[in-house]
Amino acid sequence: MKRKNTRGRKGKTTAKLQISEDPQQKENPGHRTCWSDSDEPQSKFVNFDSERAANFNEDEPKYFESVLRVHKSVVSLVATADGRRMFCSGTVIDHVGEKTWILTSATLVRKPTTQFEVYRQDNIKIEVNLHNEQTATGSLEMCDLHYNIAIVTIEYPGSMVLLPAVGLNNLPKYYSLQPRPVIALGRDVDSKAFLVKCGKLVRKNIELDCKELVVCMCDITKDFVGGPVMDSQKRFLGITYSYEKTALYLPVEVAARCINYFKKERTIPWLRIRGQALHTLALDVLESLSSKFDTPPSGILIDKICDMSTENCGGIEVGDIISKLDGDALYSVAQFTAMFLDKKEAAMDTLNTVILEMDALEAFWL
């Protein structure tokens, strides 16, 4: 759809984004590392200046069932390469043939001197510490540096029973981002002890380019990175992305769709339209933005379009607000990405181009 040039005035348009079934991802066949389409640097880790986690001791009994339900599925992983030792937690998510799939953080295999490269499978040794104090040898199946996730596989006798999978199927379409108590889980790399830390999900903007991330106020240590985040309703919310005084996690609705796509295509698509949820913006920015419209807007503010022309994005430009996607109101970047990945998978299955209908508000203030 070709849109008129309406910069400098208010307006609303419906744009169509075409999604092809032919992904153009870069892939390293040596160890099946999935790289983002963009040539720009991938997400860096930064420090966060936040208050310490609140004390939720009185709420801890709510989490007992969640903890007991998954403790056998939470492992610690140790990778050694070039004389360095890297470690993370991880979660058993599937059994594929004789292999057990473990979802963890790409931090496990990132080269610390660059942050933008990973070790090859033949240059790294991975050990997986299980809940029963046994150790298994791991192999790197997949990693993605933008979402900072990796899949490590092991072959372990009786794993279907001894290592129950936390299923990523039949998950809710999108989880609510309402602030509420949550827990971060992990396993200590040295003692092999199971770790639990209580905190609270908050609405907060982040400084990384992976805007799908969610912030929870859990004062965790490095052992938790790659481990699951859950709530008192026994729901698997996501995977811990990085740690400081706040814990960032990648929502499971994004991670699960990436893994499902990888199983079919051996690569992961990357959304070139980047933005921020309006509710995470600073108050002064929201005030300035709201003054441009008759009613306060909602949705995703587009702040970057990578390696694509405006025409290929259905006329969407930097500064626009996408308020609806296929008729569904947008509230978070994770929701936007999850819907895109669903459409990408549909395009792959049908071998046809799939079109996303987007309602866009023209925010002429940029």
UniProtKB/TrEMBL annotation:
Q: Where is the composition biased (Basic residues)?
A: 1-13
> What segment(s) does the record annotate as region Disordered?
1-41
What the entry lists under SUPFAM superfamilies is as follows: Trypsin-like serine proteases
- Superkingdom of origin: Eukaryota
Q: Which InterPro entries match?
A: Peptidase_S1_PA (IPR009003)
Pfam families associated with the record: Trypsin_2
Name of the protein described by the UniProt record: PDZ domain-containing protein
Recorded source organism is Urochloa decumbens
